[in-house]
Amino acid sequence: MRRQDTVAQVCSVARTVGFLGDIWTILILRDCFFGLTTFSAIQKSLDINKNRLAERLNRLVDEGILRKNLYDESRNRYEYKLTRKGVDLYPILMSIVNWGDKYKADDDGPPLQYRHRSCGHVMTPTLCCSECGEALDARQVQPVLGEGITRKLERGELTGFGGEHFKQLFGGS
């Protein structure tokens, strides 16, 4: 499946993975969350080809996840800072961290710990219900059709397999 095919799907997972689904994009975001902002600092951290890094950074800027600020006019150097849209990706990265610490850490343990600045405790990232605060796992969540699909179904935009597929999986008229 091509990247443009995933971003056109009526699925938030497919659209997001279609954009973020390559290793370099995720690692660039990780470095931005760690405070690296310059092209040279990110390139050094990742040992990534300059053309590949420039392409990924430009895509993140075009998507509104990073903003590009000129910091050295004489040498035409830019820094890359997370936007609000970029900061909102933090829970995704922390979910990856949580899974990686649990299943991919070596015998020495997780490589990093995360201290919550407000309370000062080292914490484990968790996903919780926005309504009651209870920690979640996949067995406790049931997908139901949302407005993004039901409106398309009502307008007849999801006909054939697409519409019937959603109705069968998640209910709906």
Description of the molecule:
By secondary structure, the protein is mainly alpha-helical. It has three domains: 3-87, Arc Repressor Mutant, subunit A; 93-140, no CATH class; 143-173, no CATH class. The protein is 48% helix and 10% strand. The protein contains nine helices and four strands, in the order H-H-H-H-H-E-E-H-H-E-E-H-H. Strands 1-2 form a two-stranded antiparallel ribbon. Strands 3-4 form a two-stranded antiparallel sheet. The longest helix has 14 residues, at 90-103. The radius of gyration is 20 Å and the shape is globular.
Total DSSP E strands: 4
- Beta-strand portion reads 5-15%
The domain count comes to 3
Radius of gyration: 20 Å
Describe the strand arrangement of the main beta sheet, using strand numbers. Answer: 1-2
Q: Structural class of the secondary structure composition? A: mainly alpha
Number of helices: 9
Spell out the helices and strands N to C. HHHHHEEHHEEHH
What separation lies between the terminal Cα atoms?
A: 30 Å
Low-confidence stretches: none
CATH superfamily of the largest domain: Winged helix-like DNA-binding domain superfamily/Winged helix DNA-binding domain
Brief digest:
This protein is mostly helical.
Give me some keywords for this one.
about 170 residues, mainly alpha, Arc Repressor Mutant, subunit A, 3 domains, two-stranded antiparallel ribbon, two-stranded antiparallel sheet, 4 strands, about 10% strand, globular
Secondary structure elements and pairings:
Blueprint: H1 3-7, H2 12-20, H3 23-33, H4 39-46, H5 50-62, E1 66-72, E2 77-82, H6 84-87, H7 90-103, E3 114-115, E4 122-123, H8 147-154, H9 160-170
Antiparallel strand pairs: 1-2, 3-4
